Amino acid sequence: MKKWDDNKAWFMVIPVFLVVAVSAILPLMTVVNYSIQDIFGPDNRIFVGIEWYREVLTDSRLHDALNRQLLFSSLVLLIEIPLGILIALMMPKKGWGASLSLVLVALPLLIPWNVIGTIWIIFTRPDIGLFGAAINGLGIAFDHTGAPLDAWITVMLMEVWHWTPLVALLAYAGLQAIPEAYFQAARIDGASTWATFRYIQLPKMRGVLTIAVLLRFMDSFLIYAEPFVLTGGGPGNSTTFLSIYLVKLAVGQFDLGPAAAFSIIYFLIVLLFCWLFYQVLLKVGTGDKS
Amino acid sequence: MTLEWMAWTMPTAIFFITIGALLVSMTIWQVKAPSVERKGFLPIATTPGDRLFIGLLGSAYIHLAWIGLTMLNLWIAFVIALIWMIVLMRWG
């Protein structure tokens, strides 16, 4: 076959393969080894088989963390996708206003994740934080360090503030790519703003919105730094998501075996979503709806 | 370089050697007889490499479901996963 005549290009992949082998494959193998042993020290370990997997899979705290994670990711999508589209629709399409709004909208994306958590700790403090003090000034008791609901509201606000710009920018790119002829035809037919959005803009944004949904789902599913800095998983365990629980298990309690088994399960969940993400991306724009 | 820090055991060594052997065999097979995408019972067109990946991922989930939902012997899950792999590679 023609395409297999020259395979020399594959040698170019060797450096990447070596880097991935050292940075990912060897650690993954080690985690698998740890997940079936009780590790007390480098020379003191006992083979336990699937015991850690059984313990982790029947652990109610893991189930709670997974439910919290799914709820969090679902809320992220429910809020960020419509809000991102709305912002994109409201952004100027041309002129200096378009450039300025693009820069302003993109600003939260440029801030390091742990700094985001610190900003929101200060912003929502009931004594000196602008948001916290203002809410308390209205007579509503708000304290994200003591009340689980307040902690969730704060984490959601932070997440929406941080990542809705990404959805807005993707939706904006999708909107800009729609030829003007579609809007001219809609105007000639006397289509309302809603009808134009429903039957022209929304279908034309399908590709970028698919990418936005999958990116935001994946990213929110792996979230760690921002809620860890902001709430540390508390109060209680109310904002302990999967990655925070994993770190508590591995570094806090030093339960390396269960943490390794948990890591493998977490990895398999993420791998499944990554594969689905990849499959959808392959289909986007090809007209294949299977 | 000692590999003591990786905490190897015989079962994990056999597991990874099997996965490695599968990947090497598939690569040799691909070079000797280049594969083409085909459509089986899966909703997408797949190459043998795709089906191997889906099969391994599915097998992992079969084992996890078995451990999480039953107290039965894990070898039963292994046989089910093996059947799943054969069916997928042949008709997937």
Radius of gyration of chain B: 16 Å
Approximate helicity band of chain B: 55-70%
* Total domain modules of chain A: 1
Tally the helices of chain A: what do you get?
Answer: 13
Structural class of chain B: mainly alpha
Tell me the CATH superfamily of chain A. Answer: MetI-like
Please give the oligomerization state of what you see.
heterodimer
Describe it.
The complex is a heterodimer of chains A (290) and B (92). Chain A is mainly alpha-helical. Chain A has a single domain, classed as MetI-like fold, CATH 1.10.3720.10. Chain A contains 13 helices and 2 strands; from the N terminus they run H-E-E-H-H-H-H-H-H-H-H-H-H-H-H. With 92 residues, chain B is mainly alpha-helical. Chain B has a domain of 49 residues. Helices cover 68% and strands 0% of the residues of chain B. In chain B, helix 2 packs antiparallel against helix 3. Chain B is flat and about 40 Å long. Chain B starts with 9 loop residues before the first helix and ends with a helix. The mean pLDDT of chain B is 92. At the A-B interface, helix 1, helix 2 and helix 13 of A face helix 1 and helix 2 of B.
